[in-house]
Amino acid sequence: MEHNEKFKIETRNFSYKVDDSEAEKASNSYLMSRVFITAGLPLPIFNLIATFIFYLGNQRSTPFLRRYCTHTFFSQLSLVIINSIGFWWAFFILFEERVFNIDYIVYLIVLFTFNLLEFVATNYTAFQTRKGIHVKWWFYRDLSCSMVQL
Asked: What is the spatial distance between Cα 108 and Cα 60, in angstroms, rounded to a whole number?
């Protein structure tokens, strides 16, 4: 088992031998959210909807694939929440004559940092998953594993 303290991502082999098509589908659950990034940048709900459809379409799949579809969905859900707060805060500053203050600037820094880290971690996870390596993010691992009964 490999553990990366810097990003709090844990990798290990799955409990059974993952076949190639299963690893590819699990990896695609992450890459699919990247395909929708062109539509999802202005409205991140598109990424969440696409991920949810992929999640629903794979509910009767293997535990490996279901776990990664669940994991991707939670990842996109957290992005939607964080990005929506930033969107509406900007909306109120622009159209409701709210104050542009240091709190907003700090939140934008946090928002961009979180989005960048999520982007890097998603790509890393997609590549590792494609190899059949089981990757767990510190924030979502317990939730996604418990929903799939792993």
From this structure: 39
